[in-house]
Amino acid sequence: MDITVISQPLAQVDAGALAVIVFENTSVTGDHAIAADQASGGWITELFTSGEFTGKALETAVLARPAGLAAKKLVAIGGGKLDTFSTVEMRRIAGALVRLLKPKKSGTLALAIDAAHATIEMASAATEGAILGDFETDQYKTDPKKNDAKVTAFSLVTAASDAITAGVARGRILAESQNFTRDLVNEPGNKLTPTVLAERAKLMAAEVGLECDVLGPDRMKQLGMGALLGVSIGSAEPPAMIVIQYKPEKPSDANVHLGLVGKGVTFDTGGISIKPSEGMEKMKYDMAGGASVLGAMRALALLKPPIPVTFVIPTVENMPGSKAQRPGDIVTTMNGKTVEVLNTDAEGRLILCDALEYAKRLGCTHLVDTATLTGAIVVALGYINVGVFANDEAFRGRLLESARAEGEKMWAMPIDEDYKELLKSPFADMANIGGRWGGAISAAMFLKEFADPVPWIHLDIAGTAWLEENKPFMAKGPSGVGVRTFVSLAMNWK
Ligand code: BES
Ligand code: MN
Ligand code: ZN
């Protein structure tokens, strides 16, 4: 989708559809909404008085062939309350417009940005929203007609400025990186094996000028990654550890090296502790953490943060079979601790513990891991918030601040030492599961044993990496959650 800037009076904007944001109020507010109202002979005022439109966020009304305007359609879209209007609403508005107009074959779409909102952040959010909204999960559908429904160009109607140009460029990078993540997550298990994921990572790294190191089973054995290897052993597909490093020319802080680690289980059957068949197809998304780390890698390689960032994605397929790991097996992790595998379906933590240790060996001073780790986090937080666990409050504060600014909902969860009890094993240093209650916390506690003493944050994205329903601004399916927060965390590191 082309993204352009149109610096013309509203009435002259020649687009398939022209949209103005109308805020919740007793009368029409916002410079462009007022101009559109006047040009259209009071259409928006009429919407307000009839009560069919109040300006509530994402409410829409469409007027065909508006007299007084060059555009073929005029769209009023609700902005919510003007005083709380932020990039979060702007991103959603742009996405909702694209999704509303795509099936109507409007061709070009222009969104008027009020002068008060003509900032780099808003231009970025609008661009992002449009490209995110355009994403579909129909890549394996062969119907050629599916391509007819599209918005060919998305334009921001606003005075041209360096800020707007920079915002559009940034928004495009961010959105295309999230869509890269979403595309990977959408791939079924037969198409995206660990080897293929590593190939896709290599290609993307090369495209953005970074080197990509892929560790295979031989190097893993040399390094003693017994936990990761134990998970992968039941599958005919070999495991891989994808490692990509970004180094700034002049680091802003010589003592910081951020490590982003993402769970890359390309399909999770549960292994010998096999999952129920109902809904198992969704487990192709069990590499969403790894995919969001790769999306962040793409964006950061292009945006160039002031600190070094290392991206580590352990990737395996969790399968049952005659070679598969058994409940009761004891594995030795890379850091030397032994683990009794009581449930082969608690495999995420087993691959992440070796990846965290590897990231530490590479010199990371701050670690963030992201994983579709537990069904328990879905019980706790539903599909709305990412569960955030950390061993360092200041670091967690930084991440939550980035998440808030980027409109990615995240919620701090407890992780005190009392939960460690749950992981006791009579036969090994720890067990890989902690019993029925507080399952997301015992999983985090397991990882903490491997991250300590390095400042570390664990994100459980099992409830948020996949949208169960279509949103007005985004298609059902992979959400790409985490990418924006990671990018903001690294870019804003002072
Ligand atoms: N990939 C799953 C987590 C998951 C489960 C995400 C259900 C979404 C829905 C993970 O590997 C897993 O199987 N976790 C188990 C852990 C249990 C065996 C301690 C779970 O949550 O059931
Ligand atoms: Mn599992
Ligand atoms: Zn899993």
Beta-strand content = 15-25%
Q: What molecules are bound to this protein? A: ligand BES, manganese (II) ion, zinc ion
CATH topology-level name of the largest domain: Aminopeptidase
Portion of residues within helices = 25-40%
Please supply descriptive tags for the structure shown above.
single chain; 494 residues; alpha/beta; Leucine Aminopeptidase, subunit E, domain 1; Aminopeptidase; 14 helices; 20 strands; 35% helix; binds ligand BES; binds manganese (II) ion; binds zinc ion
Present the secondary structure layout.
Elements: E1 2-6, E2 17-23, H1 31-39, H2 43-50, E3 60-64, E4 73-80, H3 87-101, E5 107-112, H4 120-134, E6 151-157, H5 162-186, H6 194-207, E7 212-215, H7 217-223, H8 226-232, E8 240-246, E9 258-262, E10 264-268, H9 288-303, E11 309-318, E12 329-332, E13 338-341, H10 348-361, E14 366-371, H11 375-381, E15 386-390, H12 393-405, E16 410-412, E17 430-431, H13 439-451, E18 456-460, E19 466-467, E20 477-478, H14 483-491
Parallel strand pairs: 1-6, 2-4, 2-5, 5-6, 9-11, 9-14, 10-11, 13-17, 14-18, 15-16
Antiparallel strand pairs: 3-4, 7-8, 8-11, 12-13, 15-18, 19-20
Helix pairs in contact: 3-4, 4-5, 5-9, 8-10, 9-14, 10-13, 12-14
The structure holds ligand BES, manganese (II) ion and zinc ion (ZN).
